[in-house]
Structure formats: C-alpha cells, structure tokens
Amino acid sequence: MSQLSFTSGKNSFTPTYFVDVILPLPLHKLFTYRVPKSMEAEIAIGCRVVVPFGKSQILTAIIQKVHNDSPKEYVAKRIIDILEVSPSFNEVQLKFYHWIADYYLCTPGEVLQAGLPSGLKVNTTSLLQRNPYFDESDYVLSIEEQLLLHHLSVDTPIESLKIINLMGKKAYTKVLKALITKDAVLLIDHIKEKFSPKLKKCIRLEPSLISNEEALEEVFRQLEKRPKQIDVLMAYLREVPALEDLSANENGMLQEDLVKAGYSLSSINTLARNGIIEQFDKEVSRFKKNTKLIPPKKLSDKQNEANTEILTGFQSNKPVLLHGITGSGKTEIYIELILEVLASGHQVLYLLPEIALTTQIVARLEQVFGDNMGVYHSKYSANERVEVWQNLISGKINLVVGVRSSVFLPFDNLGLIIIDEEHDSSYKQYDPAPRYNARDAALMLAQMHKAKTLLGTATPSLESYQLAITNKYTLVTISERFGGSVLPQVSAIDISKALKKKKMRGNFSEELVQTIDNTLSKEEQVIIFQNRRGYAPLLSCKDCGWVPQCKHCDVSLTYHQYSSELRCHYCGYKTPSPSSCISCGSVAMQTVSFGTEQLEEELKHMFPETEIARLDLDTTKGRGSYARIIDNFGSGKIKILVGTQMVTKGLDFDNVGLVGIINLDRMLHFPDFRSVERTFQLAVQVAGRAGRKEKQGQVLIQTYNPDQEIVPVILNQDYKLFFEKEIIERKLFNYPPFSRMTKLVIKGRDHQVVSQAVNELYHITVKKMGSDMVLGPVIPSISRVRDKYLREIYLKIGRQMSISKVRQTIRACAREILIQKSYKTITIVIDVDPV
Ligand code: ADP
Ligand code: ZN
Ligand code: ZN
What we know:
The protein is an alpha/beta fold. The chain has 27 helices and 39 strands. The strands form 10 sheets. Strands 17-18-16-19-20-15-21 form a 7-stranded parallel β-sheet, sandwiched between helices. The longest helix is centred in the last third of the chain and has 19 residues, at 751-769. The structure holds adenosine-5'-diphosphate (ADP) and zinc ion (2 copies). One zinc ion binds at residues 550, 552-553, 568, 570-571, 573.
C-alpha cells in the first residue's frame, strides 16, 4: 500500500500535502501552505516556491518541510507556483541558515534575504483585466471607480503600474479594493523569474548533410563561384570535427568566433538562409575565461614543511591557524591544499575579506583552477551570482572564491574552508541583519560538513591566537619570506619634535618628504597609508599629541562638539573638554580630522610632476575602478599610491621601495578596545607591501610619541610580544576573548523616548544579568543616524555561560521594552560579537 493514501471504509482519499516555508521576512516562525494536487509530484525540500502573503504580496519562499498536517490557527493558502524541478537549497545549507539566525539573534527569513541572490527572487507585476461577466448597471460606481474601469479591457490585461502612475498609489489601492469586492476586475499576478541565462548565437552544419556525403559534395560544387561561403564552411569544418562526430556538430560553434576571425557575416547568413547551416541560440557562461592553465608552483622547503604540519593538524579535526609573515607564500600553500581536496571529490570555499583583495589573488587562482572555480562577490551582477549558485549545484564548479556572503551558497560536499586574512573586520556584517561574522560562521559551516578549516594571516586576531595557544586550534608558523627576501626596515619619525623645529609640511614631516623623493629618484614606488577611521572626532594636543583617555575603559574619549564634552564610547563616562593639555600644559587643544583626499592634495602640491593616485572607498565605487588603479600601480604608471585600509590588503608588488604611515596615534587612540590590535595589524600588513623580491623596503611611521610602549613592538613586527602585552589588557578589563560581547542599539526618532527606553532597558538587563555584565548606557560617537537617535548598551557575557540561555534572556529583555505602548516607535538592534 502506498504510504500516502489512507483507506477508510468504502472511501479512499489521498491526504493533502502542506509545506512549511521560510519567507524572506523578519518573522520568527515558518508559514504553512497547501500544495495543489497538480504540484505534488514536484515538491521537495529546498525548492523555491511562489506564495501569496498578507493582502497583496507575492513572495519567493523556500520549502523547509513537507508534511500532512494542516495548521491549527489559520487556513493555509495555496502555493502559486514551484519555480524549479531540482532544489536550489540543500538541507545542510538550511540548517546552517537556522544556526545563523539562532546565534546572531535574527530570523531565518533575514538570513534567507542575505543568502538568496536577488536574481533568484521573483519579480511580480500585477496585471489587471475587466471581468467580462461584470454588468455595470448592477452597481452604483463612484467616478473614480468608473475611471479606473474605463482603462481596462476585457481581453488584454494591462500592468497595474500604468494605472498607479495615472491615479497615484493611494487612490489606486482604495478604488481597486472596491472594484474587487464588486467582482468588476480580475487581478492577475504575473510572475517572472529574474534570472535570465545568457544566450549566444551559434552555428552548425545542417544535420542531414552530415550523414549524406553526396549531398555535401553537391553543396560545395554549387558554391564554386561563392568563395566566401566556401571559406566559412571550411573554417567551420576545421574548428568542429562535424563529419567524424555527430555530437560535435550538434554543439556547433559560436558565430561570433568566425566573424571575429574575419569571415563574412553576410555569407554566414546566406548559408543559413539556403539551409546549408543552422543558426541556434546556446546558453553560455557570463564568465568567460580564456586563461591558459599553468601548473602550480613548486613549494619551497619551508612551504612544504608548513603544508605537512597543516595536514597533520587536519587529522586531529581541529581548525588550523596558519601564521605566516607577509610574503611567506601562503597563497601557494592554499593552492596545494585546494588541489588535494578537489582531487578527493570535495568542494572548497576560499573566503576573502573584501572585494579589494580579490583582484590579484583571483587572477593567481584562476591560472591554476580555471573554469573549475567560481568567484562570488557583491560587485558581480545578479545574473552572474545566480550562475555561480547554479554551477555549484550542477557540479560545474567545485571551488568558490568569495567574500563573506559566499558562506550562504549551496555547498553540499565541502571538504575545506580557507579563511584568508582571518583577522579582517570586514568579515563581520553590521547592517542589515544577519549581523554575522563570516569567519566564525564558516567554522560552524565546516563542522556541519565535517570539512577542514584553515585560517591564514600574517597578524592573527587575538581571539584566534588565543585559541591556538590553548590548543583549540593547531598553530602552524612560517617566519621567513619566500625566496629569502627580507622584511622591510621600519622606523619611526617623531612629529612632535618635527613640529617644534617647524619641519612639517602639512601632514608630512620633512624626513618623510625627503625619503619619498629619494625613493622616486631610484625609480621605485611609494605607498602612503592613512587609516579610514582617521575621522573619529578626538581631542588632541597640537604640541605633544596627548589624547584624553577614559578612566575606566582604556579607550580614548570621543569629542562631542555640541555639548563640548568628552565621553567614553563604552561606559558612558563624561567630562567637560579640557582647555589645556594635561600632559604638557599647552593650550593648543584641537580636534583634528583629515583624510586621504587631503593627503593626495598635499602630495600633488609637493610632487607636481609625479603620477599620484588615491585608493579608498570614494575612488573605488565603480565596478572596474579598483582593478584599474591596482593595474596602473602594478605596471608602474602610478608612482605614489595614497590610500586607506585597502592598500594594506594582500597586494603583491615588486617595486615598492617605501611605505609611509601618516599618523600612528590616530589609529591607536580610536575609541575601541581593539584599537591597539587593529593598529598592529594594519601597520604590519601595510609594511608588508614594501620591498618584496630582492630589495629590502623601507617603512616610515609618523607618531607624536615614539616612546609609547607599542612603537618598538610595531617597529620589530613582533607578533608574539604584541600578543603577550595585549592579552593582559584584555584579561584585565574582561574583554574578548575572555568574554563574549553583545551590543544592544536602541534607535528612535524622539530623543527623550530613546533616553527613557535605554535607561529602562539598562535596568532590566542589570536585573536579569547582574551589573557586572552590563556596560552603559552610552551615546555612540555617531549618535544620530538618518534622523534616529542611537544609544548603546554592551553586555560582557562570561565564556562559561550557556549561549542559548543568554540569548533567551537578551530577547526577553528587549521584548519587555518593545511591548510597551510608549515605546512603539523604538527599535532595538542586537549585535552579537560586534567588531
Ligand atoms: P603571502 O600571501 O604569504 O603574503 P604570497 O603568497 O603573496 O605571500 O607570496 C609572496 C611572493 O612569493 C609572491 O610573489 C609569490 O608569487 C611568490 N612565491 C610564493 N611561493 C612561491 C613558490 N613556491 N615558487 C615561486 N614563487 C613563489
Ligand atoms: Zn569608559
Ligand atoms: Zn600636550
């Protein structure tokens, strides 16, 4: 007996199918829909379906579960359509989405929104048509109703958008509703898949000519006086072994390839008209890769050693942290590992922090992996992203190189995840939810697939290194550069001294300017680095560079212009801004802010003959712009490159003689407990761009205070020493990795309501969790965003506490605020593990 039919007495009937779906909305629960009989055969977990939602929405949803239980609280609506025969999502992937939703306190629908490329969502445009059975004389219609009806016909539906444009959305909705209750109009939802495959025109020989040699000879005889057409046929037969291989002819060749090679398009068209060749459309990839594959490089002894250690580490099923200095050749080790995992039939995910990084590394990986590799990042078009998604499902590609959102791809057989530059904060998404960290999520994803994880970097995050030295990760270290090239020579320039001696030109010390000049005259290039966060409003002494600190938090105080106060970003401590420097007594207190643009201006002024370019968020908005700047720097056309964080990332140039860091203090004093860590990382990464291959590079760091403790640590690029110092601070203040942080952000338009809500939330959290765990409430340095006031509370959650219990408590605290009527305009954002 079939499992699916029930027999009761004389009547036998098959049960109705229902599906629970994830909707792309911030809803915590799944919704149940009924499956129409005609679609029963096709439903499967992970399929995309089109469903109605609410009064008028049509959404793309994902089937999570198939069952026979009709929902108790509501009457299930029907699925409108199933979009695919084979599912776009698999079960491990959906399980992973739910894990993200749980851990980062958001909804599966929000994870779906982030995961599903927009090209896999459907477009809906409603069509309107007059009901042919509607008789106007039965009703009294308002003038507007008559007007709308007047635009509709009984046989050709028209787009609702046209009517909306005519009468405005509000009137349209009202009138349409009235007409629908009178059965006067029919509303047809027209659903269109957004993804459209790319088609290209191909040609092939008319199939009947292949099996019939005489006919083919006859064709050539007839064309004797048409040499151009004969040329086309001959060229085709040279390219495609049509006569020996029927399927080769079936596949044909791209028409444009012949045209590009100089064959006449009109001859091709004539041949097609006369039935000698056939023209047809073929789906082609949007990624054209004509790269010639080249075998991987032979690893050096050091690289081989590291490779062996990594493989040994994998055997113990722990993640491996590869700490290899800049230029140690980590990429080549990754390549070796990827080759091995692909050969074993598994998939590989190679995560990179930002698009900025991809250009050079992608080019290198493409040389080895060619078409077996897909690249996934936000600057690719919707259609291109869908192609990667589908190629992964079909098995056309087994390696994906991508930014954080590639953790959402439909992997079903992962063997290895590489997290390159694992310390990078752009792995964390802040807005919108899911506020996930792709590095941490990838560790979970790997676990779900029983895959290996490799975290690689020259400057491990404190969190990862702590896990490594406590044996939760296997640590593998490479401490020499590939080919024996030497690390650059790093030294500091004291700009408070330079100021006193009037040896500053704008933001540049004369020593730095002189060295830039020398470097250029040796035909070498220069990189000037300025931290993106250089804009944080800080108060600092013009003479000695002193920056006021919080008594309780070990961070710099932020300057608030309106109240003329200094405040702590973490604990809320505030103090009137001092009129003179506590350190040296000078009254020259200033709020400084300058960015890369100003540096570029100054450089252009000092080096008018030199080609200078700027690399930051502003100059790299367009799709190809990043690559263009990098290419021009790589080719030597650009001599000086001024930039933010972007210049610190994995770039590999041969001819950079000098790297200048404009202001170390600005980074160190950024109001964040991670500022020392970030500074060390940035300094080491940017220094790593100097002097590769044979030449030793030079790095100059401008600072107001070369005597501060961290400076020699940075000058020596001594990671271990940095770690030992910094971990003590973290422990002292119970910051991560010793605690887990969660940030609650309260937003609202009414200043007073926001203040009240945050105070109340503070008391609720203290009551539920204890005052040790709760910091705040504080006013963030940017305290108003898009007309909404922001307040923050930080929770420092002990490592020993159960995550799920803490999650429940946090949710409960937020709910206590959100259910109150007076706070209905408030939103609370929960940011787990903020960075
Ligand atoms: P990292 O990522 O560790 O900073 P890279 O992978 O960029 O270092 O390697 C630094 C340089 O050394 C690159 O130019 C790379 O091509 C070269 N290189 C690394 N390993 C090898 C190898 N085994 N054979 C030849 N060149 C190598
Ligand atoms: Zn503080
Ligand atoms: Zn001072």
